[in-house]
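Model it.
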Amino acid sequence: MAPTAGRRARWALGLWRACNALMAAFFALAAFVQVNDPDAELWVVVYIIPAMLTLLVGFNPLVTGSFIWKSVSAVHILFCLVWAASLAYSLLLHAQHNILHEEEGRELSGLVIITAWMSLCHSSSKTPVGGRIQLLLAIVIALFPFISWVYIYINKEMRSSWPTHCKTVI
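Modeled.
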């Protein structure tokens, strides 16, 4: 017996909320691990804003349609895009290793994750759960940072060239 449309919609909404909860936790954790970074104040704010916005979406997916939510997220997305572009340009000119071995590469990765997730949430204002592709994209984006952190944590060789403040957080 095939599930009804109502059941599918509830399941999709639950999955969307779970992805938002996972991303809110990631952004909050990313803000927390900035404590010993030389420019921690800046990075904590960069991660706390999407953590709060994402938490709001997890509680009420329709919040993405509000003027305040859309405005704050749009400004933050723009800020992250401009900063990511400048970091990418700097990496193209000066990168010596894999981008994750460079401080700017790790910063760029964080900004790309923020921009991708916030853009996905921003686009969900018309249909809070979106279609299957949007939901699949949400699952992939939500799992990517955690899988990456586990990989980096296990791979000690990757962390060996990192500055001390990056090695001592977790």
